[in-house]
Amino acid sequence: MINPSILDHPLLTERYFYPRSESFKNPFWVDCGDAQLSCYYHNKYPESKTIILFHGNGEIISDYFDMFIPIFDQMKFNIFFAEYRGYAMSSGVPGLSIIQSDVEKIVNAIGLPPEKLILFGRSLGSLYAVHGVYLFPTISGLIIESGIAVLLERVLMRIHPQELGITLDELMATVNREFNLREKLEKYKGTTLVLHAKEDTMVHSAHAMKLFNWAPEPKFIKLFDEGDHNDIITTNFQEYFQLIYEFVSRK
């Protein structure tokens, strides 16, 4: 049993997460012991890389099926959609720390060597993609889109430490211990692509620059002139997926 983290406090979970239930056919179940995750694996190209997508907060994996599956079929890449506790058909309750603890089980469930994998984190999912390459530093590639570099900033937008029964220093220490993305990226041995909208009004593009600066070489960044946090893909559709295709193809 994993020791509970203050970052999984029910009040913070209530304010931070926006889970949504929805059923879909042929889920790929990942057993996390106290929770079952309703993931989905589109695997048609055994010789190709598999991209593991960790989605954003107000989303579920089926939001991506109609757009991403046909596109990655054209690219001849496999894609694994990772789901979170309490989202779609998954059991359990989401929490910043407990979801992070599921990342290792998700990656292991696919049964492929790290060198065959690309981790792709969008928004909230960037936290878990970065954690994945920290756990498996020989993973081939990391894609961070609209990512979060400093989690403490996001937490303090939703809650005051006193509401959790701790001080600001204690909260800072916990976040730094569990979500120090700079330290996690320093251990990564693969290639990183950072994508972000310059005028993102939800997660400032300064987060993208931090993540890019922290990532080791080789690394690439694209700050899109158009689009915002939730329409970056549709606004920059062709260039967005071309960059991903080129990035994965060179791996």
Write the layout of secondary structure elements.
Elements lengths: L9 H7 L11 E4 L4 E7 L7 E5 L7 H14 L2 E5 L13 H15 L6 E6 L2 H11 L5 E5 L5 H6 L11 H11 L2 H6 L4 E7 L8 H9 L4 E6 L7 H4 L1 H13 L2
Parallel strand pairs: 3-4, 3-5, 5-6, 6-7, 7-8
Antiparallel strand pairs: 1-2, 2-4
Helix pairs in contact: 3-4
Would you kindly provide a brief summary of this structure?
With 251 residues, the protein is of the alpha/beta class. It has ten helices and eight strands. The chain has helices at 10-16, 62-75, 96-110, 125-135, 151-156, 168-178, 181-186, 206-214, 232-235, 237-249, and strands spanning 28-31, 36-42, 50-54, 78-82, 117-122, 141-145, 191-197, 219-224.
Description:
- With 251 residues, the protein is α/β, with parallel strands linked by helices.
- It has a single domain, classed as Alpha/Beta hydrolase fold, catalytic domain (Rossmann fold).
- Helices cover 38% and strands 18% of the residues.
- The model has no long low-confidence stretch (mean pLDDT 97).
